[in-house]
């Protein structure tokens, strides 16, 4: 699949390899203005481009992922100063994939971050043409969902998963394998969510409710729902980050055990 207009492949790119962009191409792919990119650069939110021939700055995939992360942080209501503080805490050598994972985490803090987009808009965001098989694989990953009641060729898009999912389109993973992997993830994450909800209910919500009743402050249904949201909201980012961190560590251990220096271990 080709990249969008203005993108080239350069071994000396900011990411080491892969497509690079002029500032105009980067702005078009990110959906921002050139002025915004340069402003972020002066504030230190974006690293400087690599200066190529004719003194033309070239930006890489990490710049694109960082712009998406900045956009998501601002959607959460963060001020520019708060975004700066958030980015300052990130390691300086994060890859485009690492930044995309951070963006997916931030997007998950919202109750529903899905957006409606046409086929052409999804292609524009990704800078590539999507065949029908590509769309089916993105659906299997949960990155897009066909709109049942919408116009033909429209999807509900998860911004946090879309770019991560698109990176898998060039990896030789069968559609059936993607579906099987998603089934495993949904099954086990639902089990984790059930146990965490039970823990929250028994150890946080019930004691809070009992204290309110003991103090003679009986709450109506709407007030209870709001109180529950207020109690659980601060926990959500921490729980999501903890789940991702624990999964990454477990996956590394499992892969290390399954694939040794002598080659893959066969079951049985």
Task: Explain the overall architecture.
The longest helix is centred in the C-terminal third of the chain and has 40 residues, at 175-214. The relative contact order is 0.07. The protein has a domain at 175-263. Helix content is 59%, strand content 9%. It is mainly α and 268 residues long. The chain contains 11 helices and 9 strands. The strands form 4 sheets. The protein has a 3-stranded antiparallel sheet with strand order 5-7-6. A two-stranded antiparallel sheet has the order 1-2. It has a two-stranded antiparallel sheet with strand order 3-4. Strand 8 and strand 9 form a beta hairpin.
> In what order do the strands lie side by side in the largest sheet?
5-7-6
Q: Determine the number of helices (DSSP H or I, runs of at least 4 residues).
A: 11
Per DSSP E runs of 2 or more residues, the count of β-strands stands at 9
Low-confidence stretches: 1-5, 9-13
Tell me the fraction of residues in β-strands, as a range: 5-15%
What structural category arises from helix and sheet content?
mainly alpha
What's the main sheet like?
3 strands, antiparallel
Rg over CA atoms: 22 Å
| pLDDT averaged residue by residue | 80
